[in-house]
Amino acid sequence: MRNLCGVDVSKAWLDSWSAGRYQRFANTAEGVAQLLAFCREHSVELVVMEASGGVEQAAFLALWKQGQPCAIANPRAVRSFADAMGNLEKTDRIDAEMIAGYADARQLVATPPPSEDQRRLTALTARLRQVTADLSVQKQRLHSTSEPTALASLKEAIAFFNRQTKALAAEIAALITADPLWAELDKTIRSIKGLADRTVAVLLADLPELGTLSNKAIAKLAGLAPLANDSGQRNGRRRVRGGRPSVRSILYLVADVARKYDDDLASFRDRLLAQGKAKMVVRIALARKLLVRLNAKARDAREQMAHAL
């Protein structure tokens, strides 16, 4: 059994478990330094944390910076592992122990931290998504009042969010242009008519694996791969689940736009509808077909860049 350290991360604490030893540290720079010392004292090979909405990132990056290998585990998978092991209780201490047990059972390996530019692109794209949603809400509220002061307030908010949208889009574009690989992938993605700035930003930020995985793997990563649900003679309905919601959402939208300019996508959609497939099934299949095409194009672009170096 490898010497692993499971860490349950919250805003306030880093609850750690390694080889029967439990320790709680504050989720601060000082607490991370103490966790690092704890790991080195006990010769920990790998620190494993659950993805916790970004709360884990500060400790994850700080440990990597000091040379301590770390990995991120899927929280749903850890919870399922705990249930399977008969641990129905849930405390921070138990969670830390279950994270370590899950990592050992699955033989998790270190998850290298993203580059500074990748982290920045991800943060800017997430913020642009938030601002766009806020802008949409403010525009909808324009129709809910005729009171002059309320209308003026709404228009001021809309102007503010419009400025934010333009500024964030410009920052993202500059970041992509400055990176040779991203710039090449940008051109590759845009080669499919109907795909533009927002699609490029989401794919590069939230699906950096594009062009590095098989078509089946990339579809599953995005949550667009139907999962088998068979048992004996029963062939259950296959559904999609999990994956990356931001990627899936943008692909649903742009796939429907792209098929208007692409005969292959359009005929594929028409065939499915003619077979009586449900509209949501068709929507998923169209998005998956577009993603597979993008993955192949991105793979070619990466290979061409590698040969050029």
UniProtKB/TrEMBL annotation:
Domain Transposase IS110-like N-terminal: 22-144
GO biological process: DNA transposition
GO molecular function terms listed in the Swiss-Prot or TrEMBL record: DNA binding; transposase activity
InterPro entries: Transp_IS110-like_N, Transpos_IS110, Transposase_20
Pfam families in alphabetical order: DEDD_Tnp_IS110, Transposase_20
Boundaries of every Transposase IS116/IS110/IS902 C-terminal domain copy: 187-263
Transmembrane regions listed in the UniProt entry: none
NCBIfam families: transpos_IS110
Protein name as it appears in the record: Transposase
Species in which this protein is naturally found: Sphingomonas hengshuiensis
